[in-house]
Design brief:
By secondary structure, the protein is an alpha+beta fold. 49% of the residues lie in helices and 19% in strands.
Length: 97
């Protein structure tokens, strides 16, 4: 990993830690989030996974106002870290733990 890759990875991790803590307080069934990045294709390759206890919690979340709030929070925190993603929904997946 190059020095600039490490810098971006730390920025992503810090931004997503804040989002994770916020989402844990607001969304029932949310457990944690993680990310993957291929720095050869950065930032297009950024993928963020939100992990839930079960599929019903995912369905409830996706149909709620909190889904858009979480997407906007992710986008906002990443943007503040200097990472711009055009359509944040394309970079977020919802999975069960």
């Amino acid at each position: 990993m190059r020095k600039t890759d490490k810098k971006y990875d730390n920025a992503i991790r810090e931004a997503l830690t804040e989002v994770c803590e916020q989402t844990m307080k607001q969304v029932d069934g949310f457990e944690w989030l993680t990310h993957e990045v291929n720095y050869q294709r950065f930032p297009q390759s950024v993928m963020i996974r939100l992990m839930f206890t079960d599929r019903q919690r995912i369905a409830d979340f996706k149909n709620s106002h909190e889904y858009n709030v979480a997407l906007m929070a992710i986008q906002s925190h990443l943007s503040a870290a200097g990472i711009s993603l055009k359509n944040i929904a394309n970079h977020v997946q919802l999975n069960t733990a």
